[in-house]
Amino acid sequence: MTRRGLIVGSLAALLLAGCSNLDALRTLNDLTPGDGGATKVVDGAAFGSDPMQTLDVWVPKNAKNARVLVFWYGGSWRFGNREDYGFVAKAFAARGFVVVLPDYRKSPPHPFPGFVQDGAAAVAWTRANIAKYGGDPARIGVSGHSAGAHVAAMVALDPQWLARAGAPGAVKAFVGFAGPYDFYPFAPGGSAEKAFGRPADPAATQPITFARADAPPSLLLTGDADDVVQPRNSASLAAALRAKGATVETRVYPGVGHVGLVLALSKPFRGKAPALNDAVVFLDRTL
């Protein structure tokens, strides 16, 4: 069996067991043709004083006044690092976006709203600095998977965070991959309870609370086999945005689970769902 075949088999077994191996995915992604012309030009730029307040920037070839996408990875607001998600940045950069991939402070040492504050600070850094890397600071979209989609949604929908970061109105579009948007009350002992504790105002933790008529255009993607973040989260937020008169679209992918949706952004697993193409088409239209 080839090296690629061994990696495919190992990764599939891990995914079937309910876990993921991002080292194997990175290797397999690198072995799979495609996504040419994407280059990392910033590695670990600081947007704050904490070691996790850092970000990478990926650019397409000959970037000039390009659309910008800030993407946050998931991990229950507790785990993850930007180095593992270069495959996402490469995918969008190869399609003409300047991509910012931030880290953020994690719970439990940094519960809500720390990670949302970091999301807004990363957008503020992007607006102030992205022009020097060929990005257009007037065309910034935000996106994320799972807990990262929650961060992106809060930054896009609750205006206080960008205002406090000094970048009001910076976000022009939002794409959420399997995001938790309407998940209170928290499951006892679960990851949300660890990340949010017992907030004085639980509604302030929920993106659905901030549905508004002038929200950035939104695309909410989910798989109907997601048993980690229930698809009803996307349906509920979409309904709330529509009720306010905001622009929102949804996509539900048959047979796709929680991990499968972010895997669909990688080269080896794009056949699982057309999530990358759907996101690119939407962002092309709205940015």
UniProtKB/TrEMBL annotation:
It comes from the Bacteria. Transmembrane segments: none annotated. SUPFAM superfamilies: alpha/beta-Hydrolases (SSF53474). The lineage of its organism: Bacteria, Pseudomonadati, Pseudomonadota, Alphaproteobacteria, Sphingomonadales. GO terms for molecular function: hydrolase activity. This is Alpha/beta hydrolase. InterPro entries: AB_hydrolase_fold, BD-FAE-like_dom, GDXG_lipolytic_enzyme. The keyword Hydrolase applies. The keyword ATP-binding does not apply. It holds the Pfam family BD-FAE. Keywords: Hydrolase, Signal. Residues 1-24 form the signal peptide. Residues 55-241 form the BD-FAE-like domain.
